[in-house]
Amino acid sequence: MTTLYRMPSLGADMEAGTLIEWVLQPGQTFAKGDVIAVVETQKGAIEVEVYHDGVMGRQLIEVGQTVPVGTPMAELESSVVPAAAPEAEGQPLALAVGARGMGQEGPPQGPSVRQAPSKSVPVAASVAAQAYAQTTEGVMIPGPLVQGGGGAAQGPIRLPVSPAARRLAQQRGLNLDGLAGSGSGGAILLADVQSAVEALASGSPPAAPPGPPPASASAGRHPAHPGLDLAAMRQAIAAAMAHSKREIPHYYLSQDIDLTPASDWLARRNAELPPERRLLMGVLFIKAVALTLKGFPELNGFDREGRFEPSAAIHVGSATAIRGGGLVAPAIHDTDQLDLDSLMARLRDLVARVRGGSLRASELADPTITVSSLGERGVDRLYGIIYPPQVAIVGFGTPRLLPWVLEGQVVPRQVVTATLAADHRHSDGHRGALFLAQVGLRLQEPERL
Amino acid sequence: MSTAMTKDAILAAAQEELTNVAPDLADETIPPDADLREVFDLDSMDFLNWFTALHRRLGVDIPELDYPRLRSLDDVATYLADRRGGHSGRE
Prior knowledge:
The complex is a heterodimer of chains A (449) and B (91).
Chain A: E1 2-6, E2 16-22, E3 29-30, E4 35-41, E5 44-49, E6 54-59, E7 66-68, E8 72-77, H1 120-131, H2 163-172, H3 190-201, H4 230-247, E9 250-258, H5 260-271, H6 281-293, E10 301-304, E11 307-310, E12 316-318, E13 320-321, E14 327-328, E15 331-332, H7 340-356, E16 358-360, H8 361-365, E17 369-373, E18 392-396, E19 400-406, E20 409-423, H9 429-442
Chain B: H1 7-21, H2 36-40, H3 44-58, H4 73-85
């Protein structure tokens, strides 16, 4: 039977998306979780996924077209009627770009949270590693979707290349240098690589690149990745935050936490490990929140026009800043089930892809709560603004040395101030306080995180 | 274990790895003595990724205790050169 793939909503404030590239072509078979297309939004270029198996049918919109959320983009043929509640899959997590954990209950709001089939995930990871010749193991620095020129590069490819194009080029052993790109700014798209592959097969050389690519029109373009329009992202953030402040009755709680046990534990642990295996404190914060959330379902879920929809799974959105201005908090799926090393690897990968402008749709749509940390250079505490449709946000200030009373004595201790901002329609201060206190208690036993 | 590298070569390698870790700074001129955190807003994740890359490339494992005094490209290049050059002339 034929179903329609519609432009997904990739955020509470998204109204329309622009199709940048088709990844699936008519007649191609796909599996749940495969990327069907790349869509440009205010959050940058996002890979959107399909949520059941099938065969790609007719493409209904064209590359470059901007359509409202919900507009049919393509016809999909499938022999199976998608169930209202997709079953969870028992596949282990892989530490690679785009990998994720168990599925989410309930009908998909948009692209699904599914483990991508093994063929597509590791390929993306190895292409990412190839894009930067000097990249070290465990640090996934992907080739950004569209990247600005410049920078003396030795080895790393500096051309603007789409992820799908990279994958195909890597599969076919095609060198991208000197390839003509038909995308904006000279970007090499999947179609270009396909033409080059065909040209090679028929013995004729690929087309030579044209002159210097036209200058990017938008002044908000980030220098390293024009696929990320910072001005547009700023607008999206503004819309979401204004909506949040208008509609959500926030309450705020704050707790100073003795971070000395965690800090000492981390230092001892990291001292015995090489850099690629070390943990950052932020990972402990995220894990403590994820574990504590299991006992506080009213903080883990979504507001649907005033009605609370709890989430069975816990996907912490980790607020990540972009140098030059910009903020996004993509989901780390099933955060509570990840051990600290896996969580660190996922966080590194996520941060790299945020800064490179290549996130997946499910990472934007799926956070059930947000955690925001100021890091090492900041202020004592941060009061967050809830990102709709979530119902809570946890903030961590910059840890500092403070006088503290321990067993009747005043001693210097590492202290971090954690805050909770939550939606008073769905939880109250008593429960919020218990939650925050428990996060603090968990951080006293870092070895159990 | 390590072949001799001039400090300039080490500096160049450090610059290249830094650009890999923070591609958005690729078009910037980073003065070797600039405080990378204060001036270029590099954070602990950036530094960890950078030191990971340098460990792989130059064979030097930088312990966390040494992080605070490594503020600029020059600091890092000098540190790496010292570590690679052994304890020549010193105890």
